[in-house]
Amino acid sequence: MIQHEVRTHKSAEDFPIEEHLAYKIAKVAADPVEVPEDTREMIINRIIDNASVAVASYNRRPVAVAREMAKAHPANNKGALVFGEDGTYSAEWVAFANGTAVRELDYHDTFLAAEYSHPGDNIPPMIAVAQHKGLDGKTLIRGIATGYEVQVNLVKGISLHEFKIDHVAHLGPSVAAGLGTMLGLDVDTIYQAVGQALHTTTATRQSRKGLISSWKASAPAFAGKMAIEAVDRAMRGEGAPAPIWEGEDGVIAWMLHSPERTYTVPLPADGEEKRAILETYTKEHSAEYQAQAPIDLARRMKQTIADAGKTTADIESIVLHTSHHTHYVIGTGANDPQKMDPKASRETLDHSIMYMFAVALEDGAWHHVDSYAPERANRPETVELWHKISTVEDPKWTRRYHSTDPDEKAFGARAVITFKDGSVIEDEMAVADAHPLGARPFARENYIAKFRTLAEGIVDTQEQERFLAAVQDLENLTDLTELNIRVNDATRAAAPEIPGGIF
Question: For the MmgE/PrpD C-terminal domain, which residue ranges apply (predicted)?
Fold first, then answer.
C-alpha cells in the first residue's frame, strides 16, 4: 500500500493532475490486476448478504416507494431488474430502488475506522449497470473489488463525521471507481467521474441525528444513483470540479477540517491485489454495527443475571463503558431524547444502544422485526429498564475502535449492572460473535443460513435455490439477471399502496 498525503492546495500552486487524490483513485480503478480468490469468495458472500436483507425489507414502505419510483422509469434499451420484480427499468433508478432495499434494515456489512461505512452499498449500483450493459460475473467481481478497495481506504484516511458530513461522501467516489473498472474506462474518464460523484453526494449527517427518518436508507442508494450518472456524463466527455478534495474551495478546505489539515489515504500500488473487502464484517443482528457486540453481551448477561438469582426487575442501573462513537452517536452522549422514546421510529431505535441492550437483556435474543415492533418498544417493563441505561466514553474502547491492528480493533463495551441491593455484575465483549475474531465468525454457510431465514415465506424455496446456485458460480455467470430474486405472489400482493408522485 502507498500512503498518500492529501491536503488543500491554492489555485496558484503547481499541483499536477497526477497528484490529485481522484486521479490516484482512478489509477487504482484502471489497474488490470486480477482479483484474488479470497476476495472473489467474499464478494459472493456479500451479494448473498445483500439479497437477504433486500428480500426481508421488500414490503417496508421506503423500499416500496423507491421501487415504484424505479418502475416509473422504463429502460430505453436493455435495462436492469428491480429486486423482487419482473421487468427492466433504467439502471440508475434500479440502483436507487435496490440500494434502498439493501440498506433499509441496517443489516448488511460494515467497516469502521476514521469514518463509518457500509461498503456493501457499492453492490446494487454495480449490479444494475452490469445488467444494463450485459456484462458477465467475472467483470462484476472486478468492479465490486474496486468499490470496496476505494471506500475502505477513504474510510481509513478521512473522517467525515467529525465535521458532520454523512459517510456516503466516500461511497459516491467508490461506486464511480468500481464502475470505471467494470466498464474498462481509462484513467482520465474515471478521474472526472470520481470528482463528479464526490461533488454530488456530499451532504450533512442530519439524516442520522435526532428523529431519524427513512432517508437513512435512501441516502446511500441516492449516492449510487448519482455515481452512475457521474460516470455516464464523464463517458460523454464532461468534466468535474477539480481538484475536488484538495482545491482551495474544495472538500477538505470548507467541508472538512480546514486548509491546514493533511490527511493520509492508503491505496494499492500498481499491480497490488485488491483485498480490502476482507477487512470488512457483516451483521448477525439488524442494528447499527456498534450495537452488535453489546447485543451479544446482553444475551450472555441475561444468563449471568439468572445464575445470580436475580431478574431485570432487580436492576437499579446499567452503565455501558464504550467508545467515543458508540457513546456520542447511539448512546446517551448523543443527547437525543428520541433515543429514549418508545414511540420513536424504527430507524431511531436501531440507533439507540440503550433500547437495544434492554430488549436483548430481557429476551436473550434479537429479531429484525419483532425486536422493533411498537408493542415491543412500548412494553412498560422494557421502558423502565431502558431508561436505567446510560453510556460513558472509555478511552480504552475509543483507542481500540481506532486501532490499525486487526487483532486489537474492537467495537465493544463493558457493562456494569448495579442491582437495588447494591450488588454489581460486570462483563465485557470486544467483538460480536459473528465478527472474524468472534465466537462464531460468519462463513459461507452462515451467509446462506441468513438468506434462507430472511427469505422464508417471501421467496419460494425453488427460487431461493436457483439464486444460491447462480451466485455461487458468479465467476462463470454470463447472464447477471440471474442475480435478481423474484418474491412470491403473496408477498407482492401484500406490498403497501404508494400514492402517485411526479413520475
Answer: 285-475
Count Cα neighbours of 173 within 13 Å in the Cβ-side half-sphere. Answer: 29
Topology annotation, domain 2-265: 2-methylcitrate dehydratase PrpD (1.10.4100)
The CA–CA distances, whole Å, from 138 to 14, 34, 186, 227 equal: 40, 10, 19, 21
CA nearest to 273, candidates 11, 9, 32: 32
CA-based nearest residue to 54, from 94, 92, 90: 94
Residue whose C-alpha cell is 473498472 = 181
DSSP E strand boundaries for 8-158:
80-81, 88-89, 111-112, 116-117
pLDDT tens string 440-489: 999 999 999 999 999 999 999 999 999 999 999 999 999 999 999 999 99
Confidence of residue 356 (pLDDT cuts 50, 70, 90): very high
Hey, do 2-265 and 289-429 end up sharing a CATH topology, with the first three levels equal? no
Note the pLDDT tens digit of each residue in 244-302.
999 999 999 999 989 999 999 999 999 999 999 999 999 999 898 999 999 999 999 99
Average of pLDDT values for 33-48? 98
Question: What average pLDDT is seen over the chain?
Answer: 96
Span 385-434, pLDDT tens digits: 999 999 999 999 999 998 888 889 999 999 999 999 999 999 999 999 99
Euclidean distance between CA atoms 181 and 38, whole angstroms: 19
Domain ranges for the chain: 2-265, 289-429
Q: How far apart are the C-alpha atoms of 80 and 135, rounded to whole Å?
A: 11
Q: Give this prediction's pTM.
A: 0.91
Q: Is 202 in contact with 245 (CB distance < 8 Å)? A: no
In terms of Cα–Cα distance, which of 113, 116, 102, 115 is closest to 46?
102
Q: How many other β-carbons are positioned within 10 Å of the β-carbon of residue 331? A: 30
**For residue 55, which phi and psi values (nearest 5 degrees)?**
-70, -35
221 contact partners, CB below 8 Å, separation of at least 6: 66, 95, 96, 97, 98, 99, 100, 102, 103, 121, 124
The CATH number of the domain covering residues in 289-429: 3.30.1330.120
